[in-house]
Each structure stands twice: as structure tokens, then as C-alpha cells.
Design brief:
230 residues; Rossmann fold; 2 domains; 10 helices
């Protein structure tokens, strides 16, 4: 059996950025909620062979008792569960675990169920017996979606933290600048000199880590700050 050679501690800095990021990134987890034990075992083996972690549950309540996690993940969910309707669980997941896309599986399903699931944001809807190729394709797409969502959330949090570091006056200046106001206009709105506005603006750029005015505007838009219309 081939064994992997561990990376020595002093070799971490020699790794390319992408390789280091791959090593540090947690392995995605595929959660499976289905009351069919045989299906759970089959899916668990298939997912494990593909290189992902799995956690399986026989009921929705068992799954909900598991604390939410922040690693990339997706949920393979039977739409007909004995304790909680799959569509109800989907709503709970969307509210409590927004970074976890849902892949529905069903032995039989009505068109109305499929429509409701997809409108509610389901990543896919697969019929039983499951096709391995289709399932792995769906999981791969769902995990990519989860990774994108979590990355976006992390970026928004970093922006929020930087914005929180601004003084009240700096926030006022940033809001007006992002809205398209010139330094002279900002000074008139706030009752301060144009030179003072420039000083505040410089500190805003530094604290927000904006490399250009255009980047600062983009940050402001992501934070929901003013628009040129107001």
C-alpha cells in the first residue's frame, strides 16, 4: 500500500500558494439524511471513494442535533422522511446552515414537490435508484457552490471588520465618497474643509486596505453604502 510522505514543518513555506491552500483547506463533508440504511451505506462508500468525508443520519432530527459546521459541505436529503418532511428540513437548512446546498433524492415524487424544492434553492433533484455518475456530479457542483458561498461570507466579514475600525466621521466620509460626492461636496455636506476630507479619505483607504478609489467603491457597494442616486 502506498503511503503519503508528510510535509516537514520547515518545508511549508516552500510550497506554492495554491498547494499550501489546498493542504490547509478542510476536506468537504457530504451529509446524508435517509431512513434507508442500505442507501446510506452505499452513498457513504461512494462518497468516501471520491475523497470526501461523509456523515449519515437516519432521521432529520438526528441531523439537526448535529451542530452546524463551517467547512464546505452539502446535504443529500430524502424528500420523504418519517419524522420531518424533506422540504421542511430544506427550509431549516437554508435558515440555519446557509452554506450547505441540498441535493434531494426520491423514490417517487410529484412534480409539485420538485418545483417547490428547486424554487427553494435545491442544488439538484435525483431519482432513486441513484445513478453514481449523476450523484457524484451533483455533489461536486454542490460543494463548489458551498465553497463559493463560504468564501463570499468570509470576504464580507473581513470588509465588515475593516469598516467597523473606521471612526464615525470616517464612515460618513466613506459613505459620501462611495455615493459619488466630490471632496468639496463632502466637505460642504459635513461642514469640514476639503483638506480635512482628503485626510479622512486617506485614512479610510488605508484602514479598508483599498488599493484604488475604484476598489473602495466596490467595497462600499458590498457593504450596502450609498449610491450615486442618493
Amino acid at each position: 500500500m502506498r503511503t503519503e510522505t508528510p510535509v516537514a514543518a520547515n518545508e511549508w513555506t516552500r510550497l506554492p500558494g495554491a498547494a499550501l491552500a489546498a493542504l490547509l483547506q478542510p476536506t468537504p463533508t457530504v451529509f446524508v439524511v435517509d431512513d434507508d440504511a442500505c442507501l446510506r451505506e452505499t452513498v457513504e462508500a461512494l462518497i468516501g471513494e471520491a475523497g470526501w468525508r461523509t456523515e449519515t443520519f437516519g432521521t432529520a432530527r438526528d441531523f439537526l442535533a448535529r451542530p452546524p459546521s463551517r467547512e464546505p459541505s452539502c446535504l443529500i436529503l430524502d424528500i420523504d422522511l418519517p419524522d420531518l418532511d424533506g422540504l421542511e428540513l430544506q427550509a431549516r437548512v437554508a435558515d440555519e446552515r446557509p452554506g450547505m446546498p441540498v441535493i434531494f433524492v426520491a423514490g417517487r415524487s410529484e412534480v409539485a414537490q420538485v418545483v417547490r424544492a428547486m424554487k427553494a434553492g435545491a442544488a439538484d433533484f435525483l431519482a432513486k435508484p441513484l445513478c453514481e455518475v449523476a450523484l457524484l456530479r451533483a455533489v461536486r457542483g454542490a460543494i463548489h457552490r458551498s465553497e463559493t458561498t463560504l468564501l463570499d461570507e468570509a470576504q464580507r466579514q473581513r470588509l465588515s471588520d475593516r469598516y467597523a475600525s473606521l471612526s464615525p466621521r470616517e464612515r460618513e466620509v466613506m459613505t459620501l465618497v462611495v455615493a459619488g460626492r466630490l471632496n468639496k461636496q463632502v466637505g460642504g455636506d459635513l461642514g469640514i474643509s476639503e483638506i480635512t476630507v482628503k485626510a479622512h479619505r486617506g485614512r479610510v483607504m488605508a484602514k479598508m486596505q483599498a488599493r484604488s478609489f475604484a476598489e473602495l467603491v466596490t467595497m462600499g457597494r458590498r457593504l450596502g453604502l450609498g449610491s450615486a442616486d442618493n
